[in-house]
Amino acid sequence: QVQVVESGGGLVQPGGSLRLSCAASGRTFSTYVMDWFRQASGEEREFVGRISSSSTSYAESVKGRFSISRDNAKNTVYLQMNRLKPEDTAVYYCRAKIVTDDEYYYWGQGTQVTVSS
User: Fold this and answer.
1) CA Rg value for the chain
2) Are 81 and 18 in contact (CB under 8 A)?
3) DSSP annotation string for 50-105
C-alpha cells in the first residue's frame, strides 16, 4: 500500500503564490506518475497537471501559472501555484499512478486552497 500525503494549503490573496507538497511512500518513487487534481465545492474533480519521470503536462486553466516538479530523493512532488485567482479555490489532491503488472492509483486526503482577499 502506498501512502500519499499532501500539505501546504492555506489562505492566499488573489495574485499571490502557494506551494503544495505531496509525499508518497515506496522505494520506486522515481517511476511513479504523479498527478494533481482539484475539486471546488459543488464541482467535479478536475485534472490540474502531471509529472512523469521525464515530462510535465498541465490543464489549460493553469498553464503558465502553475508548475510541477519532483524531488525523487525526498519522494516528493511539488505544485507551485503563482498568480492565483479566486477560481483556483478548491481542495487539491495528489494521486500516484504505479504501473507494475497492472495500473494502481493511490490518492491523498487533499489540502484546501482558498484564494480570497
Assistant:
1) 14
2) yes
3) EE-SS-EEE-TTTBTTEEEEEEGGGTEEEEEE-S--GGG-EEEEEEEEEESSSEEE
Give the three-state DSSP class for 20: strand
**CA distances in angstroms from 62 to 28, 68, 74, listed in the order given:** 29, 11, 25
With CA atoms as reference, report the closest residue to 95 among 19, 13, 15, 3.
Answer: 3
CA–CA separation, 1 and 5 (whole Å): 13
C-alpha cell at 44: 467535479
Q: Which residue has the cell 471546488?
A: 40
Write out the three cell numbers for 112: 484546501
- pLDDT of 49-74, one tens digit each? 999 998 999 999 999 999 999 999 99
Cell of residue 71, nine digits: 524531488
Q: In 3-state terms, what secondary structure has residue 24?
A: strand
